[in-house]
Sequence to fold (156 residues):
Amino acid sequence: MGDSDSERVQLRIGPWIVRSNRQRTCSVYEVVEVSGARRCGCDMCLNFDRHRKRGEALTPPAVNLLAELGVDPGKEAETVHLGPDQEGHLYEWWYHAIGEVVDGPEPKEPVALGEGLSVMVKDGRAVAHEGFENFPLIEVSFFRHLPWALTTPEPQ
Fold:
């Protein structure tokens, strides 16, 4: 990545080991104005946005992990409502950090982190925020069931 050792962090996220440039990642997030959910604005994304703002989407350890990578947890790149089921509404949302996956299995299935939150990590740039164009990226995706929290009718 052309970074000095003091700029890099190496972390384990589930079975994956990633190396990231925290400082550069922070710099990109400082200029990101809106999260993926707010950018979309549909009811399913606004439901997720409400839970994220209340601190109900991510667990404290996941928030700490994102902070170590230099990621602003309030500015996910994209949010996807995977559908309602008996456990609530399943969401996937992801963030990017400048860096690479240095070890771990091929990402086929998310792995449980606890408290109903799962994660999957890969090298990727799907719907990355502006500012990440010229860097190798880690994509950290989270999955969680969340209840309906809006006053609008719940989709079935």
In short: DSSP finds four helices and seven strands in the chain. The mean pLDDT is 94. The first helix runs from residue 22 to 31.
